[in-house]
Hints:
By secondary structure, this protein is an alpha+beta fold. It is built from eight helices and 26 strands. The strands form six sheets. It has a five-stranded mixed β-sheet with strand order 2-9-8-4-5.
Amino acid sequence: MATGKETPRQRMIGMMYLVLTALLALQVSSAVIEKFYALNKSIEKNVANSAQYNADKVQTIQAAVKERGNRKNEMQVAQQAKELNIKSQELRAFMETLKTEMIEKTGGYDEDGSLKGAKEETDVEVYMLGTNKSNGKAYELQNRLNEYVAFINKRSGTSMPPIALDAKDDVLFQKNSDQRNKDFAQLNFSQTPLVAAMAVISDLETKVTTMESSLMNSYAAKVGEGDYKVNSLKPIVRAKSKYVPAGTKYEAEVMMAATSTSQLPTMNVGNQALKVDGSGIGSYDFLAGGGAYSADGLLKKIWTAQIKMRQPNGQDTVYSVSEEYYVVKPVIQMQSAAMKALYFNCGNKVDILVPALGAQYNPEFKSTGATIKPGGTKSRVYIIPNAPTAKIAVYNNGQFIGEENFKVIPIPKPTVEVRVNGKLINSKVGVTSSGLKSISIKAIPTPEFAASQPDDCTYKVVEWEVYFGRGRRAASGLSPQNPPQEYINMGSIANSLQDKDMIFVTAKKVMRKTYLGTWEEVKVSSTPIMIPVYN
């Protein structure tokens, strides 16, 4: 029987929802929406397969009961299986109706069969949440789902938890301050595009069919279905999904369609032996690797399993079965104060995220044209470019995810500011010799550079000159000055200045402090800044 523990498929679907939530905060392209629509279609196909499996199981149980003489207790089991299947079909029919009506309310389909309202959120929210709980379809869905679980528990004697939870009851959201106060309807269908809402409902259908399958298997075991002898074998692969984000786990089940629990097959994929459970089902999983993606961001791959089964005559027969799957190119998010370009020889702080990987994100970064240093978290790095362009390749657990290219721009030259008595100079007004107390000089970074690179924008003028001129020649008795600091006290020098004398201030050497704490020289203009004297 099933338990409250999530299956690998459910964990993957949950991760898909995290991707969809992250994508809502971005300018999501139509191509990405279509990929997740394809994911939903894949889930729907698996639901249909599971539903057919359960319907066939009812027929098998009824036939077995009849063949065994219609024993009273087994006839009761067959009736319970039939009632369970009817109730499951009714619930799934209701959920399919919800998806159909959402599609109609968002515009239906285009001529090419694509959804007109794939990104539509408002119509979905109005339909599913309504004006109150009495007319919101999501609240009816929640009640029906939890009533179904109660029905399963009563029939099976288990204590399965509800599957339509409010955020406060869901371990994924109960500690999230932004989500924990939302009810089931708000959590799953508020501000949610059509394709995401359809995926939510499809996942819930998966849980329904999984619970039904578990109980069906229990019913079948009660009438000895597992003891049947078979004379026809067919290898089958049941994949969790054919669309897998690169760096995440691909999962599938490999089985013989008519195997016996008393005679289990052995299974291999290449040199890897698969674990086969007591019902003859083998499990295969691996980390999906990226590569040469197509224009729509998909990479088709195939794997093949060999299944060895003992025949009734005692001979071993090997069957082969192949399965194709698609690796979906994950969206790489680069978050930085300056996303358009990186500054040369600066510690450009960048957060490199791949939302599709969720908790499995364990990145490694490789660069061309730059040096990368860790930034304190697994997704944060400092990129120090040393070439006109920089390329950053992203890997996850050794699997290549993708790469991003950056343009590298030079550091903008700082502005040299000269102040007299602490105030910026005005060449038209000038200064008086009696009012001249001090001259100071500073190198100021551009606002854009200071905002994006706060740890790289500290400047210091370490060499500068002050000249005094009168007419076309240096003033008598005045000599060039070389102040050792960024400030000079004029003192008695000011008293010797005459009307229409000129003061020339020139920055000779400017240093910049890098984010590493080291200093490097910056080339600045050698044109002097003039301060006229008007007595």
